[in-house]
From TrEMBL:
Entry protein name: BOP1 N-terminal domain-containing protein
Localization per record: Nucleus, Nucleolus
Record-level GO cellular component terms: PeBoW complex; preribosome, large subunit precursor
Lineage summary: Eukaryota, Fungi, Dikarya, Ascomycota, Pezizomycotina
Region (Disordered): 1-152, 307-328, 340-368
Length: 524
């Protein structure tokens, strides 16, 4: 019995045996099928030998069928005999048109089976279901040949319909290929770009004003109000993207679990440690002169002995001139060529403090020193109402002058005024005062008007202290007063009437005024 190869034994199901001639042909075909499953390219002589070995293996399998028949029939993983017959029939049909005397085709047999791409057919067993070939399947090219404008052939490829197991099965829909070009360039065109095949992408339809209003009121999920620059359609974002944008607008970290302020890792501690980081003893080379440095020093010593290096040679005339030039170059006036530059047009220097006066002297004259009453009045006033911030004091010597307690505050207020009071340069208007006066007409144009003095009204030249009106029709003829210090009564004759008057205000005290009124009341 021929030795059995590992991995080649298959479970079979007993089927009705065909006639002897058909059985012989089927056995030869099964042997060739086994060779194909192994993926070997052999000659006709070798295929016959292996067919005989496979026949022996099949005989052994037939002998074992009776023992394991019950167990195999109970298994759900055993393919039916109809499926195996379909697969064998398909392989026979494919082999009909080929020459059996030549080498076998290089096309992998797994591609001849059907849609299970990339599966090794040698691993097919009764435990693995096999998909039959599709009916009417034809491998046609995915292009057509046209003629271009020059008469040359042009290949036009059709749309690719990816299968489920293709790498492009989950590829996104056809997108715009205009790149980073803004869509505003296509405002004058009915399309917004081109797809990967060079076809125009139509502009998406836009709703009316009412539709846009309703869309703004009923905001759908993922609405952003933005437009996709590649398609021109409203941009829809996922919940995660919206959450990320919300965190970015709030200056929060977009990622979960990210700590922007982690605890500081003290790589170098400021604490002085008692024990060293490394207690290894110092190596011997730290205390032995370096041989490399010794060789360099010996080379220098040899060069000095030979005269190639002169450490203390006398300076030549060229060296002296060079040294003098360096000294002259180094000693020059930095501000010799400095030219005064005018200040900026808007530069306004800070106003200077007024110069100190006699009252600020440590030994002022006596007339500048305040007395006790002036000191008390100055202390009772508020700080804002005082004419000056200090009182002059007399000191016998300058060394006896104490520290000024308001020095820091005054300097602070000075800096505060310079900081808060902006200085602005205002141009003074150079205007002639006569230009501000109105232009009067010529007096000759204003005639007739009086030109001769007809009457002169003269009055007294004394000082008027009090005035009162007595009568509107009669003139005052006589005015007299009652002599005395205790009263102040005036009498005036106006026509046939006599008037008694008591002056009021600053001319008469309230007591004299009361006494004068009492005398008049008693007499009349």
């Amino acid at each position: 019995m021929a030795p059995q190869r590992a991995g080649q034994k298959r479970k079979v199901v007993e089927v009705p045996r065909p006639e002897p001639e058909k059985q012989k042909e089927e056995e030869e075909e099964e042997g060739e099928l086994d060779d194909e499953l192994d993926g070997a390219l052999i000659d006709d002589g070798d295929s016959e030998d292996e067919s005989e070995e496979d026949d022996d293996d099949d005989d052994e399998d037939d002998d074992d069928v009776d023992e394991d028949e019950d167990e195999e029939l109970d298994s759900d993983e055993i393919p039916s005999s109809e499926d195996e017959e379909d697969v064998r029939q398909q392989l026979r049909d494919l082999k009909t048109g080929s020459n059996t005397n030549t080498k076998r085709a290089s096309t992998p047999p797994e591609k001849l089976v059907g849609s299970d791409t990339g599966r090794d057919i040698s691993a097919i067993s009764p435990d693995t279901p096999v998909h039959p070939l599709q009916e009417g399947y034809e491998d046609k090219p995915n292009y057509r040949i046209d003629t271009d404008a020059n008469g040359n052939p042009r290949y036009v490829y059709g749309e690719i319909d990816p299968a489920y197991d293709s790498d492009d099965s989950e590829a996104p829909a056809t997108t715009n290929t205009i790149g980073n070009i803004p869509l505003s360039y296509y405002d004058a065109y009915p399309h917004i770009g081109y797809d990967i095949n060079g076809k125009r992408i139509a502009r998406p339809a836009k709703g009316e004003a009412l539709d846009s209003l309703l869309d703004s009121i009923d905001l759908p999920e993922g609405w952003t109000g933005l437009t996709d620059p590649t398609t021109g359609k409203p941009m829809q974002l996922t919940k995660d993207q919206l959450e990320t944008l919300k965190k970015l607008t709030r200056n929060e970290t977009p990622g979960d679990g990210y700590d922007p302020y982690p605890e500081m890792v003290y790589y170098f501690t400021g604490k002085e440690e008692v024990m060293p980081l490394s207690a290894a003893p110092e190596p011997k080379r730290r205390f032995v002169p370096s041989s490399h440095e010794h060789r360099r020093v010996m080379k220098m010593v040899k060069a000095i002995k030979e005269g190639r290096i002169q450490p203390f040679r006398e300076q030549t005339e060229e060296d002296r001139e060079r040294q003098e030039q360096e000294e002259e170059f180094a000693s020059y006036d930095v501000w010799a060529n400095e030219e005064p530059q005018p200040d900026h047009v808007m530069n306004v220097p800070a106003p200077k403090l007024p110069p100190p006066g006699y009252e600020e002297s440590y030994h002022p004259p006596a007339e500048y020193l305040p007395d006790n009453a002036e000191k008390a009045a100055w202390e009772q006033q508020d700080e804002e109402d005082r004419d000056r911030d200090f009182l002059p004091r007399d000191h016998a010597a300058l060394r006896r002058v104490p520290g000024y307690e308001r020095f820091v505050k005054e300097k602070f207020e000075r800096c505060l005024d310079l900081y808060l009071a902006p200085r602005v340069r205002r141009s003074k208007l150079n205007i002639d005062p006569e230009s501000l006066l109105p232009k009067l007409p010529d007096p000759q144009e204003l005639k007739p008007f009086p030109t001769t003095c007809a009457a002169v009204c003269r009055g007294h030249e004394g000082k008027q202290l009090w005035r009162v009106k007595l009568s509107a029709s009669e003139a005052v003829n006589v005015v007299t007063w009652r002599p005395g210090k205790d009263t102040f009564i005036l009498a005036a004759a106006c026509g046939e009437e006599v008037y008694f008057m008591v002056p009021q205000g600053d001319l008469c005290d309230p007591e004299i005024e009361t006494a004068s009124r009492a005398i008049l009341d008693a007499g009349f």
